[in-house]
């Protein structure tokens, strides 16, 4: 066609030159009184010549008559020579055009269908510039092929005759089959939409709809199609511009490989008038699509769309005219391929595509060929699923620092998280990626990532795994505090090195340990379930981390069934604004933008991935493979564990459904004789595996009170305190005075006493009567060694302690108050359990609470604890298996702790 255009240009140029020479000759022949007549004759001749050049119907006779005019003397020979040269050259055009087509558009692009129909294409990078649609003739030298551009070069706009639908479908089917049979399998995606038909849009190509090659859209899904195409254009343009190119073709040429498929969008408009907004969107698409490797084929869309369009006007079922050949050159369209042959060819192509792609994609297809080869200095990038056979990536970095994931129960949210975590962990080693995983719902979604009884392996990237924390909102708060502290640490280091982001910090401090941190909080709405201090603090911390975390490589992934009811964020949209990465599972609500309904139509096992804050043009639909069934993720975890476990510690596991064991506590293992003794009481709800403890020094008030009627928890705290203290004293250097005044606890207290004795410590067992008698001795005589009073149910002994012995001025209670006040300075410390706060107050008398420096409250309401917490308001609602701990020497406010599990409970 390029040669034909050149020939046409030469004809027009020759006519112009001829007119110029005629004017010169006629002007030289002008004389005297014949000037006017001669000029008129010349002008009339020019009009005749121009008319002959435009309309061949004038014929050679009119041209010959004009040349016989006297005024043409001396010009006729030159004109005849030019005329002869033109037709001599034109006679060679068909042959040259056939040679040109054979060179630039070989194979299916130009050959008859019998030579290629149904065969799989192999061209990976460079599509032919022209594609055959028919033939035409100029003279008796024979027909020449008529070609049209497509793919990277042009769109097509087809206008049909009154009854041209069948012919148009055959024309488009032939073009699409030529493309599919030329290009590499899976490298071309076709999108079909018809304003008037639910089905039968190019029905012969339907076998390809079971693959990624053909996608069909209902008439009411035009908006969905335009949003998808717009999203592809934005994403591809961003990718190519980041690489320094203005088009996908330029990037492809530089890399020498295909990075995105070509797309052909076929739109049957049926001559209907479009609404203004989709029409504007289509015009925007037309102008930008070719640079993104997207071509449009429009049929009967009566508007000027802009962009590079090749026009085809159907004259009847067998003939057309194109803008490349001009209005007077009729194209004889190639005969349509029989429907059965088209359908059979489409089936063969579909089978070849499925075979090449290996059928449905699995979790293993998400993983790289070699583990741990990526660097996280700039961003994290990992595929989480597949769309039309190609991987769909999640990118976590400066542009999309945090993610919001939504999906109702059963929508596949947990499976998606496993796919994401597995894909990230396979690409980035633990030194590049640190994971903090928290699951608020009642379940063990992440428990398998920690070592267990059946599988000793763990995910080396995981630093913290929290499960069953739906009642322990404090643990979520602790994680946010940890992240806030880490953010401050990194910010300080960045300031010291005079850089502004993680990439700069890692470059300036290559020996530092600065992995990207990803904190996943599943069902994070539980963290904000109450209107209390936990919610207030968590909201402030989350907002700060969301704002500033991106620069220092700290990223949040917040997952929830529904975010609509989180009152804590009313009027504080900063968190969600920073979550520019939105992931919506099927039927998810409120995750994407309000007008984006892509999740409603998403099929099961799919997710809508959107890096543009949920706006529709950013949608990418991804099929997420099974990542959470038995032995799927665990096989990858074992590979990673075998590769990295020797260099990294096992993750900290916090399971809110199980009480910790004292002997398994790192704090208990670290206790040794020497230094001030510490009584361990329970596990702290913190990121680090720490214990709540009371340091028993000689300072005033170094006693401990347990308050409440919860027997199991009270026994646990007393037991842990005694055994942890016993571990810090050599035999015979501490004396335990044990008094059990609650009959139900006698057996447990007896077992504890026996255990202390077996460890070589002196144990004195006191009855309620003996306790009263012993108090005077304890108050008056300094002990030879450290002395620990373990008093169970002190409130039960008050009646006896209040009695005065004959001849004595002070009662046992008076002596007990002296022991509480003066005992710590003499090496005597009291650990007592009171079953009510009122009885504790009675015990302390007018001295107030100064003699009880630390306490643990069980089933006691917060309103009863203010007096014991320096007068501050205490927000505490009792719950099983938890206690509220306060030590005035170390705490600003009370903290929740988990009492250790007692030995008989473990059995």
From TrEMBL:
Sequence ranges assigned to domain FtsK in this UniProt record: 389-594
Protein name (record): FtsK/SpoIIIE family protein
Keywords: ATP-binding, Nucleotide-binding
GO molecular function: ATP binding; DNA binding
Source species: Amycolatopsis thermoflava
Lineage: Bacteria, Bacillati, Actinomycetota, Actinomycetes, Pseudonocardiales
Keyword field contains Nucleotide-binding: yes
InterPro entries: FtsK/SpoIIIE/SftA, FtsK_dom, P-loop_NTPase
Binding site for ATP: 407-414
Gene3D superfamilies: P-loop containing nucleotide triphosphate hydrolases
